[in-house]
Structure formats: structure tokens, C-alpha cells
Design brief:
Elements (H helix, E strand, L loop, with lengths): L5 H9 L3 H15 L5 H8 L19 E7 L4 H11 L5 H9 L3 E7 L1 H13 L3 E4 L1
Antiparallel strand pairs: 1-2, 1-3
Helix pairs in contact: 4-5, 4-6
Amino acid sequence: MAKLSTDELLEAFKDLTLIELSEFVKKFEETFDVTAAAPVAVAAAGGAPAAGGEAAPAAEEKDEFNVVLEAAGDKKIQVIKVVRELVSGLGLKEAKDLVESAPKPILEGVAKDAADAAKAKLEEAGAKVSLS
């Protein structure tokens, strides 16, 4: 099998649905006995604006979105289950802490369709969600 470049792998991942990507991450974690939970901590901490006050140009069309959990709503347990489903490698305690510390980003830098799918799933579970 030919070795794929990083760009080729990214292009292949762009064609996957959120569920397919989640399944891939789980299989990757099992195969290599690793966890993908570390990037979640970085993503949650990465919400601060860049030093120097620089902002991205507003004229560009946005192709990456952040899914932000605004509030868990009345069905917190359902929302925790959905968060664990969306963010692979997240344990029950981490998911609960994330939900209870809302507003928090759940997914960052995802495609529009993946962000919409995640938002719909979270709202169906009773959460208040925004896209940024």
C-alpha cells in the first residue's frame, strides 16, 4: 500500500461524516493503544484571543466552525451522553465537567455540515448550542 501524505489523509477525512470519523478515531485508539483526549483539553483552553489584538479578516467566507455548548438544559444526562459521542476519548467525568462548565466549545474548527450535525444532535438532547 502506498504511503499517503498528510494532505491526502486530511482530504480523505473531509469526506467522512462525523459518525464515521468518530468510529475511525475509536479504532485508531484501539489499534495503537492511545487516547485522543489530550487535544480536547487544548481545544477547550484555546478559546482566548491571540496576543496583539489581531483579528481574522471578516471578508473571508467561513469554512471552519466551532460548536459551543451554551447550556445543558433540563436533560443534562442526555447532553453528557451526546458530548461523549461527539468528542471521542472523553470519559464520563470529563464530559460531565465539560457540560457543567458551559458555555464551552465542544468541537473546534469543524466543517459546516459536521458543525450543523453536532448542533442538531445536542439540541435534540435538550442543550442550547451556538456556532461561531
